[in-house]
Write a structure and sequence with these properties.
17% helix, two-stranded antiparallel sheet, alpha+beta, 247 residues, single chain, 12 strands
């Protein structure tokens, strides 16, 4: 086939009509709470510098036929399909200059991002969720400087804390320990980087990525290579991904 015109001029491209599975395919970040290790793709690290762009969460139920049903996080149990419920959290953001998805199924990872400020579901063993503390700082900047910022304006330095007991009322028979994720510091990325991150957020349509989990859907079971989670744990490692906690 002859190409008659390859001069795109000022045209910057479009994702309209692009298959959904071709969008938002980013390298995964996971966390092994037992050993306190981050997985960045296939690389292991004790600390993680991460610029968060957006967070989404949902509940998933796998029915008897093996079909996975996804529901908005506040969906009541009676409104979902029969089967075991798994809570999921994903945070998309930059490691270096490349977008990744931090996948959180385990209690430890979910609590790191979304442990409530208080109330029935607050877990005293964990700090208030990183996402809430980041939102609080954004409000503080707005109040003190009159400036509107966004999560992609800030770089987090995350590290593993000291191992704690993880058994709970939700899973009292499972005795396990894990290292909570600590947010050691937060820093403004700089004006130029903030502007570049804002444009990347727009170009990648991250708002649509976040909104995707606000609607109920039936989805194929995720594969380890594409779901933004850590590799399957080695034999003998405790897995705490089934506690019935609504975050």
């Amino acid at each position: 086939m002859k190409i008659e015109n390859a001069d795109f001029g000022e045209y910057t491209g479009s994702t309209a009509g692009q298959a959904q599975e071709e969008r938002w395919v980013y390298e995964g970040i996971g966390y092994n709470a037992t050993d306190g290790i981050f997985y960045i793709g296939k690389q292991e690290a004790k600390t993680l510098e991460f610029v968060p762009f957006a967070l989404r969460q949902c509940k998933e139920v796998t029915d008897a036929a093996g079909l996975t049903h996804r529901y908005p996080i506040k969906t009541r149990r009676a409104e979902m399909a029969e089967g075991d419920v798994t809570n999921r959290v994903q945070v998309v953001g930059l490691v270096g200059d490349v977008l990744h998805i931090f996948g959180a199924r385990s209690w430890t990872a979910r609590a790191a991002w979304l442990n409530p400020r208080g109330g029935e579901w607050h877990d005293d063993r964990f700090a208030v969720g990183i996402w809430y503390r980041l939102q609080d700082y954004i409000k503080q900047v707005k109040a003190e400087k009159g400036m509107t910022t966004a999560p992609f304006c800030y770089r987090l330095k995350l590290a593993a804390g000291q191992s704690i007991e993880l058994s709970s009322a939700a899973n009292s028979k499972q005795k396990s320990r894990g290292c909570p994720i600590l947010a050691e510091s937060l820093a403004f990325v700089g004006a130029a980087a903030a502007r570049a991150n804002e444009q990347l957020y727009i170009d990648e349509m991250i708002n649509e990525w976040a909104a995707e989990w606000t609607k109920a859907a039936a989805v194929e079971p995720p594969t380890p290579a594409s779901n933004g989670n850590a590799p399957a744990p080695a034999a003998g490692l405790a897995v705490t991904d089934d506690e019935d906690i609504p975050f």
